[in-house]
UniProtKB/TrEMBL annotation:
Cell inner membrane is among the record's keywords: no
Taxonomic superkingdom: Archaea
Keywords: Membrane, Transmembrane, Transmembrane helix
Residue ranges of the TM segments: 72-90, 102-122, 128-149, 156-178, 216-235, 247-269, 275-298, 310-337, 357-381, 393-411, 431-452
Name the record gives this protein: Uncharacterized protein
Length: 456
């Protein structure tokens, strides 16, 4: 088998296993875990058996810290896997730049990160596994540097990828600074308290410099990773020609720079810089939206039998959804935090004590799901099969439905005290959960189709 194709299978397999593990550990699957002999309760979990639902945070401070550590480790493992998958996808298009050597190094870093994170979080909370996790992240950072050193741009789109990679590495360096705070017991203690307080009101954490650095790190990594995935999709379909296309790519670069600088600045200036992130994101999203409609070659009906056509329409719909269900709700929330413009009272009022946490959690999940499904469509573009298109459409439609309806759960409920049982919410039960089931079926089918095509 072609080495790069083998890496693509490995990346997909790791992503499916990791996401499947996360789903298995969610509260709706407590009985399934029990039937499999797995623990139904995890140390520090938010689940409260007295009310049979999740609280904002575990009432025990040590348990709360363990829960937040577990969340951080799990999502670092997921991000590492998706970053590995992105590099493999780029390698399939630019074999002259990214060879099997860099992919092998990246795979080792991903495995170290994933194994260390999962065992530390769920099996044995010892220094060895945490050290393996840190080693994996370091290897991934090194593979990013090696990729940057080998990169020789030949097109304007290459320049957009290089700028995004440099800024992504900068965000990784900020993340390393945040992690290094655990060397100091005093610094880490303050950081842990800030993370707990931020679950109730982010203003309470603003005075902690490490928490601000973490916030900047998170915005940088997620925004740039999704942008790179979008650019990989454009690369796969074919870079458009013409002056307007070149201008739109230059606008993407401008958006990357402004978004990253705004995110970095949260570390130093806090909420003032945080307000800049929304307009900065609008520049980036506007430029990628324009670029998606400049890419051509496939009519809508062709997307049902040609995976590259599906990728094109996935990029377009993904950008429209980003505007409608990430950027617009984000702007509405941002300008309503302290003034009752769209929400009465203002969104940060105590009467909304559950809503902002729900919004923040949902907001990041929407972006991560969008990132993952877009990357899946890039992979499926290598499979010339109407079945691949059908599976991809199932994944895409499920993702679009879930991300749209999640905003209704986050923002369309009346103000009031925190309800610890979101699973009875009408938007979740009637739209989000069925959409997630559809998306899951599509992803599973896509994985099997890609695997069978690779084994021919």
């Amino acid at each position: 088998m072609d080495p790069i194709r083998a890496h693509m299978i490995l990346a997909l397999t790791l992503a499916v296993l990791l996401v499947g593990w996360g789903v298995l550990l969610s509260p709706p699957f407590r009985e399934l875990r029990a039937s499999l002999g797995l623990p139904t309760e995890l140390p520090g979990a938010r689940y409260n058996p007295e009310v049979k639902a999740a609280e904002i945070i575990n009432k025990d401070e040590e348990g709360a810290e363990f829960f937040l550590a577990r969340v951080a480790h799990y999502y670092h493992a997921l991000f590492a896997t998706l970053l590995y998958g992105m590099l493999v996808a780029f390698s399939s298009m630019r074999r002259d730049l990214i060879g099997a050597d860099i992919l092998n190094i990246t795979l080792i870093g991903t495995l170290f990160t994933m194994i260390g994170a999962l065992i530390y979080s769920y099996v044995s909370r010892t220094f060895f596994w945490h050290g393996l996790f840190i080693a994996g992240l370091s290897i991934l950072f090194s593979s990013g540097l090696l990729t940057l050193l080998r990169f020789r741009p030949s097109k304007t789109l290459d320049l957009a990828l290089i700028v995004a990679l440099i800024l992504l590495l900068g965000g990784g360096a900020i993340g390393a600074y945040v992690g290094s705070s655990y060397i100091s017991k005093e610094a880490s203690g303050g950081f842990e308290r800030a993370k707990i307080l931020a679950r109730f009101n982010p203003d309470l954490a603003e005075d902690n410099e490490i928490w601000r650095a973490m916030t900047g790190h998170l915005h940088t990594m997620v925004a740039l990773a999704t942008t790179i995935t979008f650019l990989l999709g454009v690369y796969k379909i074919g870079i458009p020609n013409g002056r307007f296309a070149k201008v739109s790519i230059l606008l993407v670069i401008l958006g990357e720079l402004v978004m990253a600088i705004a995110s970095y600045s949260v570390w130093f200036f806090g909420k003032i810089a945080h307000l800049i992130i929304t307009p900065a994101a609008l520049i980036l999203i506007a430029s990628t939206l324009i670029l998606s409609f400049l890419v051509g070659g496939y009519k809508f009906k062709e997307s049902f039998r040609e995976p590259k056509g599906l990728l094109l329409w996935g990029l377009r719909l993904g950008n429209i959804w980003t505007w409608a269900f990430i950027a617009l709700p984000g702007a509405i929330v941002a300008i309503s935090l302290r003034k009752p413009l769209f929400f009465k009272p203002e969104f940060r009022s105590e009467l909304w004590d559950w809503a902002e946490l729900s919004y923040n959690i949902g907001h990041w999940h929407i972006i991560v799901v969008l990132w993952g499904v877009m990357l899946l469509l890039v992979y499926l573009a290598d499979v010339r099969s109407k079945w691949a298109s059908a599976a991809g459409w199932l994944s895409l439609i499920g993702m679009l439905g879930a991300t749209a309806a999640t905003n209704l759960y986050m923002l369309a409920n009346p103000p009031g005290p925190y309800s610890p049982n979101p699973y009875s919410n009408i938007w979740l039960s009637t739209i989000v959960e069925p959409s997630l089931i559809l998306m899951s079926i599509g992803i599973a089918a896509s994985y099997l189709i890609f695997l069978l095509d690779s084994l021919k």
